[in-house]
Every structure is written in structure tokens, then in C-alpha cells.
Design brief:
The protein has about 140 residues and is mostly helical. Helix content is about 80%, strand content about 0%. The protein has a single domain, classed as Ferritin, core subunit, four-helix bundle (Ferritin, Up-down Bundle).
Amino acid sequence: MASELLDLLNKAIARELGVSIQYMWHHVMALGMESPEVKDVFKDIAIVEMKHAEDIAERLFYLGGTPTTKPTPIAVGGSLKEMIEADLKTEDEAVEMYRVIIDKACEEEDTTTRLLFEEILTAEEEHRHTFTILLK
């Protein structure tokens, strides 16, 4: 297995760990008139992102890699709108990254990794859509 794909999987794990913490803290820190309806969105997506980290780590380990435990930088705080904007940005980055991973998995003829990331990409696009709607 090419080390480039393993490196990409570890970057994806770091991203999933980081955003799961970020979204959970946004759940905790959300204030304001609209926060009750948004708090649960942050929490629900955080849990999905943690599951993604687990699924990617299992795949990476199967392929012979060692999953990272270090998350990407975490952006917390600010107004509810600023939190959602930060979260939308992280989802945009995820969509880009996961398309690269899917392409690399295709190049490596790794159907299982490709299918895993196609499924995760679908969820990330849904998260991006959710945050976009919340900003309107």
C-alpha cells in the first residue's frame, strides 16, 4: 500500500478528531435566542464525525498504518454565527480532502477505501448543507 494513501487517511483521522471536538464544544458554548435549536445539531454532527474517525482508523490499521491521536486545530468560541461559519469552512475542507482520497484510492485500486470515503463524503456534504441552511 502506498504511503501517500496512508498519510491521507491519517490526515482524515486528525480532521475528524478535530471537528468532533470543535462541534461538541460549540454544542456546549452555544448561546443566544437560536441556540436551543442549533445546540443539538452541533452535538449530533460531532458524534457522526467521531464515528468517521473510528471507521477511518480501522481501515488505516488494516492497511498497516498507525492511526494518529492528534487532532487538527480546533476553532471554538465566538458568536453562534461565527461558530457555524467555522464549521462550514471545516466541512468545505473535508469535501475537498475526501475527493482527493477517493481519487487516490481509485489510483491504488483500493475499492474498500474508495467506498468508505464515498460514504463519508456523502455525510460531509449533508453536514455542509446543514450549516449552510443554518446561516440563512
